[in-house]
Amino acid sequence: MLNVEHLSIHFEERGKREDAVKNVSFQLADGEILGIVGESGSGKTMTALTIAGLKKPYAVIDGGSVWLDGMDLLKLDDAQMRSVQGAQIGMIFQEPMSALNPTMKIGKQLEEVLILHTKLSKEERRNKVFAAMEDVELRNPGELYDKYPHELSGGMRQRAMLAAAIVCRPKLLIADEPTTALDVQTQDGILELLKKLNQKYGMSILFISHNLRVVEKLCGRVLVMKSGEVVEEGSVEGIFGNPQTEYTKELIAAIPTACGKNEGDKSTVDEAGMEKDMWEPRKVLEVRNLNAYYREGRARRQILQDVSFALYEGEIVGLVGESGSGKTTLCKCVLGLLKDYEGEVIHHTKRPQMIFQDPYGSLNPRKTIGWILEEPLKVQGGFTKEERKRKAEEMLERVHLPKEFYKRYPRELSGGQRQRVSIATALMTGTKFILADEPLSALDVTVQAQMIALLKELQEKEKICYLFVSHDLDVVHMLCDRVLRVEKKQVTV
Amino acid sequence: MKYKGRSYNFTLGLGITVFMVALILLGFLWTPYDPDAMQGSLKLNAPSLLHLFGTDQFGRDILSRVLVGAGSTLVIAVGTIVIGGAIGVILGAVCGYFGGWLDEGVMRICDALAAFPSVLLALVIISIAGSGKYKVMAALGIAFIPSFARIVRGEFMRLRESDFVISARLVGVSTPRILFVHILPNILPSLLSSLAIGFNNAALAEAGLSYLGIGVQPPDASLGRMLSESQTYLASGVWCAIFPGIFLVLLVLGVGLLGEGILDRFGGGR
Amino acid sequence: MKYVTKKILGLIITLLIVSMLTFFAFELIPGDPARSILGTDGTSEQVQALREEMGLNRPLPQRYGEWVLDFLHGDMGNSYYYQKSVQDLIGDRIPITVTMTLLSFSMILLLSVAVSIFSVRYANRLFDRIFLIVDQVTMSVPPFFIGIIFTAVFGLAFHWFTPGGYVSYEKDMGGFIGYLILPSLAIALPRAAMAAKLLRSSLLDEMQKDYVRTAYSRGNGPWRVLLRHVLGNGILPVVTFLGMTAADIIANSIVVEQVFGIPGVGRMLISSISKRDYPVVEAIIVLIAVVTLVLNTLVDVLYKKLDKRIELI
């Protein structure tokens, strides 16, 4: 049904040429679900956008063709392509909040597709919209019709996107990372739904993702892309059971798995057990009977109630909980950023440090890496300029960055490199306790694996204790020795 | 994503600004003729090689008067942004970073002051204190405090919660150092561009006040008053209006482009 | 609703501060109002009597209170110069200034929206490039200079109107509006240029957003995407700017009324300042501040109403 032949695309910006897609060919049969996996920059999204006629003007097609039921989409003019978009090709995207028009009612956004592609009456359109909403298992379509995107949950938004994409019953659905922005339970719901729609209407699905676990669940066949080329292609069983290329093996190895670690071993060790351990680990942080509050106008809401726990040198402790459960409040108390609490937070080490989720915001953009690294030393005082520089360069080596980065600015570094600088800055203070707030979620999978290796290395070599905040349970289980769960104002181990 | 094509605002703006300011500074030292010397035989002469911009109803050389008048404009506009900028930055930084009742109070007064269009506020101050070059400067300076304070406050509030500032607090950096070493460099582009906008507003306000006859007073020359006087002779000496006006427009255009160029080139932070 | 209440409370407090600042600022003026009215001929007994009559001997806070109450009742005091009440003096001038402000505002809105939409539709093409240059220059021209150019071109060269030939609205409504069009345009042009520039960059930002891609993926054409999807979102950041425009128009109308010889509130203000007729100046200034503040509050509430839908982004 869909036949992509020798597709090549390059970017052209300010006279610089960069190949984005190189000679890519593949087929998609009626009713098939094909996955394309790869990291950012692999060309998978560019391929999908080109099929859907949505490539940016600076992306230039060098050659190839995209056949959809015997018609070459790349040869259509704009008006012809518009009649295909939405009617024969439906598309859903990664971030359902930004992909929906924030100031247009959900119902209107669905109806628009019908206005553009059919001559149905108002009444018929409304019925079709309701039917599509039922197809994607949205309850109360009548009520949702008049709601705005921000009034829906993430999962519901993605379902609404999906409803708009299928309301004209397209033959092909292109899904570009549709589950990436959602939490795990919602992800599974969307995947189930895609499977159901695929079976019910025989709709082919092109599924783009960087998450191999998700692809494994949904797709029958997989294409692995790297730097614009298809490096491997085969059935899901073939790719996962017997990967042929180094790159695919690397990707599979980077999948965090819950069984990658013997769970019964450490995660059940309670505090008493830890203290009886051979090397008598020292406490780095103690929280006793913590009650924390949040002020909302005049009302004072209790967020945490009677929370107690301790963290020890050289351990990695996961902190999980739904959003809004009080995770952030707990972190703020631990860091001393929130003063409105009762109980005790005792640090047995130097100031606690923090690594942030967004590697682009956590380094001062106007300063060099060297300046940022030296700042903790300037605060402590008592170092000469040469000593500071020597220590900063040593620290760069400890987090496996080249010494030359001393003179660089944050904007010249990649996301993973910036996270390394953040860790280095934290270590410069001499602390043994680092709070890491989703430090991996903004990074590519292979970079994630390298970061995990670094965190572990520092844990073992320098006895650093991490409190690791994450919503990705797989990563938490793989990395952490124990897990703290925040739920209903309480923390359970 | 950058839009296609490179921005020439900075280069062009800097070029025009430097050229205009150089001309005006030259006017402080030397003018082709005495700007106040009247010559009955040369009334309302059209532009010629001797008098590039022509002469006015008293036979005075318009080029010389434009240079001297633009000098007053420059002095007043610079003085305004120095007064308004210095006080505004300090108020905005402190209010934005600390928040609380201090912020609430200062911003309330700023709101009240901002309710008056800045020209109007200057009018009030002038009507109470009287007109003249330095009084206009002080009046405009005070009138411009709220706008600077608001911009700086907004930026400090935004950056107060940013990851790199929290990170600096955790490291133990002192508050003044966070304010002026960590945050201030990051708002410099937007501060400079708002200073450019402030300069232009001040220059235009001064010209407007002088046009109304309540700004710069004789014997100080002023572009606004030249324009006001030119209206009577618009039919017979259109150059009396055109040249002072264009001179003012070019100065404002140059500084405006420069302000935007600063944002294009150094703004954004990343 | 809570937001609106909070805004109105804030407005009242700000209005109080404004009235206090104005009242006490005018108290600071050296010289005795009674003396100014009577001139140098008045004897000191006469001055004393007049002071008593005007209530100038009572304590300051009490006089402030009475001044505010009188103002709320529409009594704005008496002119020193004209021996008339201020409300009578400015009453028939207000419609002139209001008409000009409304005309200007509509022009700003129409011009900026129309031009920026074309400019975004043809971004980086010839129309857009010419627009950017013309826009930047227009932004730099003071309204009163535009007014002088209009007078020279349309008045003296083309004879489309008689400079200084203002037509009263009581005599001829059509002629009145006709005479106000060029002054309003002079005020509107620089401000419209600024609004168009803001709107253009806001619309271009919106064009990069994901929902635009979604709209295209459903088969929308470029004009439909621009008008149905992007404009509604892109105009939001400009709403605040348009709100502040009211203050700017009023300020510029003071000068432009002078250029075209229009007997509006602004001209009254200027002539009163040069005559040191303080009650008139005080009343006009408070009036302008009140109008500006109320408009700003309205815009804030309107913005919140539009913005409510996207605050979670």
Give an overview in words.
The complex is a heterotrimer of chains A (493), B (270) and C (313). With 493 residues, chain A is of the alpha/beta class. In chain A, 37% of the residues lie in helices and 27% in strands. Chain A is built from 19 helices and 19 strands. In chain A, strands 6-7-8-3-9-10 form a six-stranded mixed beta sheet, sandwiched between helices. In chain A, helix 15 packs parallel to helix 17 and helix 16 packs across helix 17. With 270 residues, chain B is mostly helical. Chain B is 73% helix and 0% strand. Chain B contains nine helices and no strands. In chain B, helix 2 packs antiparallel against helix 3 and helix 8 runs antiparallel to helix 9. With 313 residues, chain C is an all-alpha fold. In chain C, helix 12 runs antiparallel to helix 14. The two termini of chain C are 22 Å apart. Classes of the chains: A alpha/beta (493), B mainly alpha (270), C mainly alpha (313). At the B-C interface, helix 3, helix 4, helix 7 and helix 9 of B face helix 1, helix 7, helix 8, helix 12 and helix 13 of C.
What's the arrangement of secondary structure elements?
The complex is a heterotrimer of chains A (493), B (270) and C (313).
Chain A: E1 2-13, E2 16-28, E3 33-37, H1 44-51, E4 59-68, E5 71-72, H2 78-84, E6 89-92, H3 96-99, H4 106-117, H5 122-135, H6 141-144, H7 154-166, E7 172-176, H8 184-201, E8 204-209, H9 212-218, E9 221-226, E10 229-235, H10 236-241, H11 246-253, H12 263-266, H13 271-275, E11 283-296, E12 299-312, E13 316-320, H14 327-335, E14 341-347, E15 353-355, H15 369-380, H16 385-398, H17 415-428, E16 433-437, H18 445-462, E17 465-469, H19 473-479, E18 482-487, E19 490-492
Parallel strand pairs in A: 3-8, 3-9, 6-7, 7-8, 13-17, 13-18, 15-16, 16-17
Antiparallel strand pairs in A: 1-2, 1-4, 4-5, 9-10, 11-12, 11-14, 18-19
Helix pairs in contact in A: 4-5, 4-7, 5-7, 7-8, 15-16, 15-17, 16-17
Chain B: H1 9-29, H2 62-98, H3 100-115, H4 118-129, H5 133-160, H6 163-171, H7 175-211, H8 223-230, H9 239-266
Helix pairs in contact in B: 1-2, 1-9, 2-3, 2-5, 2-7, 2-9, 3-5, 4-5, 5-7, 7-8, 7-9, 8-9
Chain C: H1 2-27, H2 33-38, H3 44-54, H4 60-72, H5 86-91, H6 94-121, H7 126-139, H8 143-157, H9 173-207, H10 210-217, H11 222-234, H12 236-260, H13 265-275, H14 278-307
